[in-house]
Specification:
alpha+beta, OB fold (Dihydrolipoamide Acetyltransferase, E2P), 2 domains, five-stranded mixed beta sheet, four-stranded mixed beta sheet, 20 strands, 22% helix, disordered N terminus, disordered C terminus, binds zinc ion
Length: 330
């Protein structure tokens, strides 16, 4: 039913334009139940391009989960009526770009209900239990591959964040595949404002999970320490916890490893975002706080700095990381 080349995702948009007025006025999906009947249906356009849209006053019956009213692009048999290439709501184009840069690690699956499904495939060598043999050419290949995967993961996260920030929903499914096992996107990648969810999971299921996870965080400080096993170094950051009486507002996390390795992967310095991949675990006690998340890394491929086109935007997008409303379920 769904061709390989056709991307059928729809975006539930919170805003639109009426073109029967001079000048055109913006309308909000929140007004659909009370005012929608008065809007001429042929005269509604995307807020950012000329695509025709329709108002959907959705009822709980339409989906398993109740959904607020929204606008959607009017489907046209045989294509057409697409969002403009540069339109904010042109999700097909944005995903095309992410896929093209993913080195084939972002796969699209067929699904029976027509909803697009995307799967981010992680290199086999990075299964949960495996430590990476250092110094071989094989490691180099996996390292390059994983860095691409992490950058792809960060771009997907930025895309989803971007739409969530506008209160727009993308009607599609994302997942990651770790060592042949499917992991739901929200259980695989944690953006700064959702790190507390990982913290909770590790409290409940911990001290470690059955699969690796990727965490986007802002590095704030690096320090070295000497022990009987040699000199190690760590780069730390903080993340917000949901406001609760009597508990701290922020918690710390740290990426730990051999001195030279940490120097290398955090070469871009602090005050910027990185993504750390591997078996994150929860550590009780310690010099800094009661609980902290930790990741021991063994390969440079486990950390990527978010430095390309996603780089500038997360700084503003993820700045308000205490924004805890509308979080998807744990
Ligand atoms: Zn548009």
């Amino acid at each position: 039913m769904v061709g390989d080349t056709t991307h059928r995702a729809t975006v539930a948009m919170p805003e639109a334009r009426r073109i029967d007025t001079t000048p055109p006025v913006r309308i909000s999906a929140a007004d659909i139940p009370t005012q929608g009947h008065a809007w001429p249906s042929q005269m509604l356009r995307c807020a950012h391009c000329e695509a025709k849209v329709q108002a959907i006053d959705s009822t709980p019956k339409e989906r398993t989960r109740p959904r607020r009213p929204y606008f959607r692009r009017t489907p046209r048999r045989g294509g057409g009526n697409r969002h403009a290439a540069e339109c904010l709501y042109n999700v097909a184009e944005r995903i095309r770009v992410i896929r093209a840069e993913s080195d084939d690690s972002l796969r699209r699956d067929r699904s029976r209900n027509g909803r697009p499904r995307y799967r981010l495939v992680l290199p086999e060598a990075f299964g949960p239990a495996e430590l990476i043999a250092r110094g071989s050419r094989g490691e180099q290949v996996v390292a390059e591959r994983l860095t691409t995967v992490l950058n792809t993961a960060a771009k997907i996260a930025a895309l989803l964040e971007d739409y969530a920030e506008r209160d727009a929903d993308i009607d599609m499914e994302w997942s990651a595949e770790c060592g042949g096992e499917r992991v739901e996107w929200l259980n695989f990648l944690y953006v700064p404002q959702r790190i507390w969810v990982l913290h909770r999971r590790l409290e409940r299921e911990g001290p470690a999970l059955g699969h690796p996870t990727a965490v986007v965080f802002r590095a704030t400080e690096c320090e070295s320490s000497t022990s009987s096993t040699g000199v190690s170094r760590s780069c730390a950051g903080t993340y917000a916890l949901p406001p609760e009486p009597g508990s701290p507002e922020v918690e710390r996390l740290a990426v730990v490893g051999e001195h030279e390795l940490i120097e290398r992967v955090f070469a871009q310095g602090t005050s910027r975002f990185y993504i750390g991949y591997g078996m994150w675990f929860r550590e009780r006690g310690g010099p800094v706080g009661p609980t902290r998340l930790r990741l021991h890394i063994y390969s440079a491929a486990q950390v990527a700095d978010i430095s390309d086109e996603v780089g500038d935007r997360p700084l503003s997008r993820w700045r308000q990381w205490r924004r805890l409303r509308d979080l998807p379920g744990e």
